[in-house]
Amino acid sequence: MCIGFPMTVIEGDAFEALCERRGERRHVSMALVGAQPAGARVLVHVDSAVRLLDPLEAAQIDDALDALEKALAGENVDHLFADLVGREPELPDFLREPESR
After folding, report:
1. What is the spatial distance between Cα 58 and Cα 85, in angstroms, rounded to a whole number?
2. Distance of CA 95 to CAs 88, 89, 92, 98, Å?
3. pLDDT digits (tens, 9 = 90+) for 59-92
4. CB 28 within 8 A of CB 17
């Protein structure tokens, strides 16, 4: 399994960029997403940017990764999933029973 991490572009070109996440800087291949301006958020797998992220999605991924770390340590993670707490799960339309006529 490969886990992707949101990273922020510091500087770079269409081939490679210096990106940062929580103080760690890495050189990341930009071959799949092209050149991005400083401040752009990208999802990075194995030192390759695979797609662009908007700020909300990047924050949600960071929260999920933080939750995984806390859950493994036996800590409460509800605050990291505030958008899901107290909400009933919903099936996607294609899994729902057809309505009776």
Report:
1. 20
2. 16, 13, 6, 9
3. 999 998 999 899 999 998 888 877 777 888 888 8
4. yes
- Give yes or no for a contact between 39 and 8, defined as CB atoms under 8 angstroms apart: yes
Report pLDDT digits (tens) over 83-96: 777 888 888 888 88
In 1-101, which ranges are E strands?
Answer: 5-12, 16-21, 24-29, 41-45, 48-53
Q: For residue 98, what are the CA distances in angstroms to 77, 89, 90, 94?
A: 36, 18, 15, 9
The mean pLDDT value for 30-40 works out to 97
On whether the CB atoms of residues 80 and 37 are closer than 8 A, the answer is: no
- Residue 60 burial (10 A CB sphere; 0-12, 13-18, 19+): middle
Q: Which residues contact 37 (CB under 8 A, 6 or more apart)?
A: 9
**By C-alpha distance, which of 11, 15, 13 is closest to 38?**
11
